Amino acid sequence: MSSQDIKDNPDPTPFDYQAEIYQKGLRYERPPITFDSTKWEALAKERLSAEAFGYVYGSAGKRETSDNNLAAFKKWALIPNRLVDSEFPDLSIEIFGQKYPYPIAIAPVGVQRVFHNDAEGATARAAAHEHVPYILSTASSTSIEKAAEANGNGDRWYQLYWPLNEHNDITASLLKRAKESGYRVLVVTLDTYILGWRPSDMDNGYNPFLRADEIGVEIGFSDPCFRAHFKEKHGKTVEEDVSAAAAEWARVVFPGKSHGWKDIKYLQENWDGPIVLKGIQTVADAKKAKDIGVQGIVVSNHGGRQVDGSVASLDMLPKITDAVGDSLEIIYDSGIRSGADVAKALALGAKLVLVGRPYVYGLALQGEEGVRHVLRSILGDLDLTLHLSGIESVSKSHLNKDVICMVNGNPTAN
Ligand SMILES: Cc1cc2nc3c(=O)[nH]c(=O)nc-3n(C[C@H](O)[C@H](O)[C@H](O)COP(=O)(O)O)c2cc1C
Ligand SMILES: O=C(O)C(=O)c1ccccc1
């Protein structure tokens, strides 16, 4: 066997991955990146510039929300059940009418050229290889079409940073491009109509989105409607003044003003497919999402990057699931760092969980292979965590109070 073993196996299960790692270990072959998920951040810090690391690691204000997100997972504990006569767990889920082998997806993350030259292309390829849905950010360094090409036969979703109504023509153009390039689900991010107060980026004077070297503006610069708008307003083409064009694109997608609930209708009229609202943190908003007729929500606080001093996203998950879980698909992000974290979010009501910063660290460390490593690590960890807890499938762990309890509190398991 060669070091190509894992790559040559077109469909290794997470368990195959673990077995091959130990076999290679017998031949003194060590994996290029650690399996200790708590170390990826520090390794990425060594690799990236201070600005780039500050950008991904950075959070709003004193990092309280970010810290709360991580601490919230420690308030819950899995409870292993014994003598459950079962095979390896079935990790598959069905969401929006499609079956997926695993309950995780790639969170939308902008400006990926900051982290690796292969940028979104690497992430989109890694996601397709690992059969994990890929979500492309509007703030990407790669166009909608090129990311789709890299993602190939993978399942892809498009995350919209939503221009105000006066720019509905640009919104319609982005949606049309996404549809034509095979993006299936529309994810509308509601919590970032302007960037939060982020001390690390401000200390570095660093906003990659404003940079004219096409780090986060590729989707705008390749959009015919945005190009026409820029020409009309500035009397020049995008290429004739890339700095002004980058600033204009930033104004269009981060206008500093939020839409209202009534505006969702426009998206429903212009997107033929499931719509998911990302950034929901209250039961009241979850109910509004349900009433307005979208298909899903992402319970998320943007990894604590927007509002400091706020509630952990995980703390809101059970409440929101109780209120709307039977009428909407509930997706979760903010603070997922390991397989056990995924298992906890599933038990507390999420159908699907988005992995954010960890895969960005993988991308920084080793491009496409690094992202694949992080996804396989989290999945392998999840697989064994469920199996060794006597949980036969992801669907059985969903909302199952027999597999999770609160530490130092209730509700406890039976
Ligand atoms: C560097 C970075 C860029 C991000 N860019 C976007 C984005 O363009 N669109 C979006 O909806 N969310 C974006 N997010 C938020 C993620 O989708 C996700 O909500 C967050 O990373 C979850 O928190 P966690 O990574 O701490 O688990 C970004 C997050 C990071 C770390
Ligand atoms: O940094 C972020 O959290 C984010 O959403 C974003 C905003 C602008 C450009 C790229 C990502």
TrEMBL record:
Record protein name field: Alpha-hydroxy acid dehydrogenase
Similarity comment text for this entry: Belongs to the FMN-dependent alpha-hydroxy acid dehydrogenase family.
Pfam families per the UniProt record, alphabetical: FMN_dh
Superkingdom field: Eukaryota
Keywords annotated in UniProt: Flavoprotein, FMN, Oxidoreductase
PANTHER family: FMN-DEPENDENT ALPHA-HYDROXY ACID DEHYDROGENASE PB1A11.03, S -2-HYDROXY-ACID OXIDASE-RELATED
Gene Ontology molecular functions: FMN binding; oxidoreductase activity
Organism for this UniProt entry: Coleophoma cylindrospora
CDD domains per record: LMO_FMN
Known cofactor(s): FMN
Active site, renumbered: H302
Record-annotated FMN hydroxy acid dehydrogenase domain positions: 29-407
Binding positions for FMN per the UniProt entry: 108-110, 137, 159, 189, 278, 300, 333-337, 356-357
Top-level taxonomy: Eukaryota, Fungi, Dikarya, Ascomycota, Pezizomycotina
Protein residues bound to glyoxylate: Y55, Y161, R198, H302, R305
